[in-house]
Amino acid sequence: MIDLYFWPTPNGRKISIMLEECALEYRMIPVDINRGDQFKPEFLAISPNNRMPAIVDHDGEHGPVAVFESGAILLYLAEKAGRFLPSDPAGRKECMEWLFWQVGNLGPMAGQLSHFVNYAPAQGNDYARTRYANEYNRCLGVLDRRLAGRAFILGDYSIADMACWPWVLSHGVFGQPLDPFPDLRRWHETMKARPAVRAGVDLGKALRRTEAPDAAARAILFNQTAESIGAQAAVHSRK
């Protein structure tokens, strides 16, 4: 059994999709990131960067295994299941390139754009919003060129697709149409049609809140420092 510490966000959906694709037995444990669950000491013991997703595999070779960071989790699950990760050195190298491209480029650029679209004050942030919108657009172009003549990022379906796709799924929220990227749009529709992908996206739909965090929550969530995270963890430990 695998415990999936989860909230329905693009990073969380990478892992729910992978678990569904591999048909691995798991249970979902909600981590309400709008209410600060990620700062609770019991979660920090699993995910020291206070970010979800994280997993605990209770069927590890030498006992329970905790894994944090979505890219690391995808690799761990691919090796555990023996699926969606090329076994030959050249294919594995390509998979690592595109997995690390996602966690270092597409994800962070889209995540910062999401912050300025959804949470930052409307006034005074034009430069930042334009900067991250342009970077998101650039990343979509990189992916579109890669997908020319390929059904999936590596040719065959892999964890690289599962890593990238949830951040493309949110393109409408970011005001970025896919029309300029025909190969990306084709791939996006192919991914959407996979039953395991749909199941992974549907996980936790009832958990998602429509209201934005209040002022107190924003002060915790968006002004983090080493000191504030430690203080927040201490508050939770006394509850």
Radius of gyration: 18 Å
Q: Span between N and C termini?
A: 29 Å
Sheet of most strands: 4 strands, mixed
Identify the CATH class of the largest domain: Alpha Beta
CATH superfamily of the largest domain: Glutaredoxin
The structural class is alpha+beta
What number is the mean pLDDT? 91
Major sheet strand order: 2-1-3-4
Label the CATH architecture of the largest domain: 3-Layer(aba) Sandwich
Runs with pLDDT <50, length 5+? none
Number of strands: 4
> What percent of residues are in strands?
5-15%
The number of helical segments is 10
How many separate structural domains?
2
- SSE order, as H and E? EHEHEEHHHHHHHH
Kindly report the CATH topology of the largest domain. Answer: Glutaredoxin
* Helix fraction by DSSP (H/I, runs of at least 4): 40-55%
Described by the principal axes of the CA atoms, the overall outline is globular
Structural description of this entry:
This protein is an alpha+beta fold and 239 residues long. It has two domains: 2-83 and 200-237, 3-Layer(aba) Sandwich (Glutaredoxin), CATH 3.40.30; 89-194, Glutathione S-transferase Yfyf (Class Pi), Chain A, domain 2 (Up-down Bundle), CATH 1.20.1050.10. It is built from ten helices and four strands, in the order βαβαββαααααααα. It has helices spanning 10-22, 41-44, 70-81, 89-118, 126-147, 159-169, 182-192, 195-202, 215-221, 226-237; strands spanning 2-6, 26-30, 54-57, 65-68. Strands 2-1-3-4 form a four-stranded mixed β-sheet, covered by helices on one side. β3 (54-57) and β4 (65-68) form a beta hairpin. The chain is globular. The chain starts with a strand and ends with a helix.
